[in-house]
Amino acid sequence: MSTISNCPAHHTSAPKLEDDPFSFENLEDPLPFQQRLREAGPVAYLPQYGVYAIGRFAELTSTLENWQEMISGSGVGMHEPWRARGLLQMDPPEHDAPREVLQEILSSRALRALRESCLERADSVISPLLEGVAGGGQVELDAYHDIASVMPVNFFPDASGISEEGRENLVPYADHIFNAGGPRNELYKKGECRAEELGQWANDKCQRDALKPEGFGADIWAAADRGDITHEFAPLLTRSLLSAGVDTTVYGITGLLYALATNPDQWAALKENPGLARVAFDESLRWIAPVQYLFRKAGTDVRIGSHVIPEGTRVLLSYGAANRDPRRWENPDKFDLSRDPSGHLAFGMGIHQCVGQHAARLQAACLLEKLIERVERIELSGEVEYNHNNALRGWGAVPLRLTLS
Ligand code: HEM
User: Fold this and answer.
1) Whose CA is nearest to atom 36 of ligand 1?
2) Domain 4-404: which CATH number of 3.40.50.1100, 1.10.1200.10, 1.10.10.10, 1.10.630.10
3) Which pTM value belongs to this model?
């Protein structure tokens, strides 16, 4: 339930929205809240948390681009950061050098060299699931457990040079980091007990001695040897990959499979034209943004439309709302491979735009290639479950029935 009214004078004239984006109801289905947020105005005030919120595409884009006034350096969650800051929690000029290092290591050119090993990994995920089933036969599986959470938890740490031991920690580690971006609610508290242990585990994994001699991690340390970043920062930058790159991709790929299973005509279009694989992934990210909410802090009084966000106030960024803003997207609730989804905000925009996007796209493309080869039809075979998270659209189960070609 929500009501919209004008805010008390000291909070400017921004409309007040009584919604709690982090309530069970709104995490289970964020779309009604996100629609209210867009309709409330270019910016709204959430009194329960004393923060502002932006859900329209144009204003979210300009906010993400306005790094000078909308700062990340005091964290991109509702509170100050609780651990040493990574790349995402830095402003220029501190952000510049490490960003350049990662951008080079994770460039689409660099990623092309990993295509073969990524395809092999995708095959090792998909083939055993379909083994022994003839054409026309059916297989039941879970998109989240059997496909999406297997691929990034293995391919990506391999590419980063992270050893095998303890990889089951990757998803719970990042789950807590993303929960820590929201209020100190039950979701945050449930992860608190293991936060230190998992944080220590991730730090240990990112030390030079623990990394394999080849991979993104070793490349980061080599950049430190060249003097591009400090040696102290090398493990933190490596850790940024683990915290930002695993759960996001797991949920992105789950969302992609959900989108295709619930839109059989779009799966048929993809089968007919496999060249649409990249559009399919990006359109699924637009349709269901894996990163739903992050924050900025107003470094000065910031004007949005006719409203002023006072200096020092935090601002919730709703990527999911902006990606379905009818002011920008025609028929935004339709998952539609005939549209051009480029410009969507699921990877952010501006100087913090996702530096790992090519790695995510590569994994999704390889999985799709393997599925398109073997699968005629994909459909849901049971109830979908969500894994609530304060920042992510987390999935718990997406039961699928595949009919083989
Ligand atoms: C579908 C998968 C992914 C999604 C939806 C996603 C989403 C995002 C978003 C929204 C941001 C911008 C946050 C902001 O503006 O404050 C971001 C930044 C970032 N992402 Fe991703 N990401 C994904 C995959 C990855 C992967 C695979 C990696 C690592 C290889 C990665 C590493 C990073 C890093 C390090 C940043 C911070 C960049 C900076 O501050 O300059 N992400 N991501």
Assistant:
1) 354
2) 1.10.630.10
3) 0.96
